[in-house]
Every structure is written in C-alpha cells, then in structure tokens.
What we know:
Layout: E1 4-11, E2 14-23, H1 28-40, E3 45-56, H2 58-73, E4 77-81, H3 92-100, E5 107-109, H4 112-116
Amino acid sequence: xxxxxxxxxxxxxWAVLQVSGELDLVTSPVMRQHIHDVxxxxxxxxxxxxxxxxxxxxxxxxxxxxxxxxxxxxxxxLRLILPAQGAADGSHVNRVLGALGVRRLFDxxxxxxxxxxxxAGPLSA
Length: 125
C-alpha cells in the first residue's frame, strides 16, 4: 500500500512542504492538515513540492484548490513544483491539472530554488 509522506521546511520567507507518494481519497487529508498547520503558524507563503507525487486523483486536486483558496484569503502566495521533465515524462500532477483545465490556477515552477527566488516567474500553463 503506497501512502503519502509530507515533510516541511523553510527557504527564506517561504514554507516548503515536500510531498511524495500518492494523493488520493485516503491520503489527501494528510496533506490538507499539513497545509492548515503551516497557515495556522502564520506562514502565508507556501511552496508545495509535488515532484515526487506518483498519483493524484480528484480528492488530491481538491486539496490543491482548497489550499489556493486558503492562501489567497490570507493574501499569501502558493507555488507548486511540477517538473515538466523527469519520471514518466513529467509530473503526473501536472498532467492531471492540465486535463481538468485547472492548471492555469496555479503558479508552477520547475524546482524549489526557482519558486523561492525573488525574481521568479511561473512556467506558462
């Protein structure tokens, strides 16, 4: 049984959550709780590194959309790490978000260093 692993850290003013495994109906509440914990600590600039997520279903997408809404309500910033290249020709999450037509809602970066850079610009949808 594959689960999800979420580890936290900081890069400058940014809270960074690295997520690996699968985001599905069973595991997505774990990520949701980590996001809420970060915001409850007063951190409103969040990077979600999803480069190691191998599977994401609609409940995982729902957590991402809810995270976007929560961070925006705090006048914060949410950035996703979804590499275009790599295991199985790119990020599964990137393909799922694109297929559902919600990829454009997110600021996407190729890696954490690019996401936390002051002059960073997101990748195009």
